[in-house]
Amino acid sequence: MLRVRLSKLLWSSGCKYASTSETRIEAIPEETYDAYRQEASLNVSHMKPRHRIIAAGGIPPVEFEWEKTRSAARERFGTYGLESGVDVRQCWPTIEEIEEEKAIGFYRHYLEVLKEVKALEAAKKKKDKDRIAELEANEKRYPGLLAKYQAGQVKKEKEKDAQEVALEKKIREIQEYFGYWIDPKDPRFEVMFQQKQDEEKKAARQAKRLEKEKKTIAEVL
Q1: For the chain, which residues make up each domain, given as ranges?
Q2: Cα 131 from Cα 136, distance rounded (Å)
Q3: Are 9 and 28 in contact (CB under 8 A)?
Q4: Confidence (pLDDT) at 18
Q5: SS3 sequence, the chain?
Q6: For the chain, which residues score pLDDT lower than 70?
Q7: Rounded CA gap, 95 and 80, in Å?
Q8: pLDDT tens, 2-24?
Q9: Burial class of 172 by CB neighbour count within 10 A (0 to 12, 13 to 18, 19+)
């Protein structure tokens, strides 16, 4: 007796006999259909048989072409050991692989690597020692450098105070000379201050000349 079913239904249940995920109608024997249904009902995880074997701690069978390659066989032997059924001879490198590894220097002699590691460790120790010595020297110099820095800050503050006093004096002189206050940030500020100085110098020269003339006249009389 034959029954009709959808292969997509069996595929979704995890059955390994479904060969495609496309929906199609095919006729299968009643006994096979019942076996499928029983297997699907027991497979509550919906995992494929291969994955169920791995989850149970078993060794899955070799099913795919990529599993037959040397690299896959080596990995399989490394995972499952002698029980994997892999020929141990496949795990050894070929002559071509050995020659390639020698050409690129993939493997090196133990004594050579040990010598290089010791040299690196010695260089690191020397670097750390030099750094510690530098820190100790800087620590000894720190009090003097700090005092010098603080003295410089005090000097800057004094110079700043002197500059502020001089600026206030210039502002006051300009205000008294021209009769109004002007912002020191104004570009005209320095021009007006220079004008004030020039006029004051000119007035001083004239006063000096007049004083000299008066003295000369007094001597003649």
Answers
A1: 2-104
A2: 9
A3: no
A4: 41
A5: CEEEEEHHHHHHCCCCCCCCCCCCEEEEEHHHHHHHHHHHHHCCCCCCHHHHHHHCCCCCCCCCHHHHCHHHHHHHHHHHHHHHCCCHHHHCCCHHHHHHHHHHCCCCCHHHHHHHHHHHHHHHHHHHHHHHHHHHHHHHHHHHHHHHHHHHHHHHHHHHHHHHHHHHHHHHHHHHHHCCCCCCCCCHHHHHHHHHHHHHHHHHHHHHHHHHHHHHHHHHC
A6: 1-29, 31-41, 221
A7: 26
A8: 333 333 334 344 444 444 444 44
A9: exposed
Question: Which residue is associated with the tokens 């500059």?
Answer: 163
What are the angstrom distances between the C-alpha of 41 and each of 15, 52, 56, 128, 141?
A: 11, 14, 18, 68, 83
- Which amino acid, residue 144? G
- State the pLDDT at residue 3: 38
Let me know how long the chain is.
221
Q: How far apart are CA 189 and CA 170, in angstroms?
A: 9
Q: Encoding tokens for residue 60?
A: 């899955």
111: which residues sit within 8 A by CB, 6+ positions away?
none
Structure-token pair, residue 26: 């095919």
The reply to whether the predicted model has a pTM over 0.70 is no
What CA–CA distances, in Å, run from 139 to 31, 132, 134, 142, 148? 91, 10, 9, 5, 15
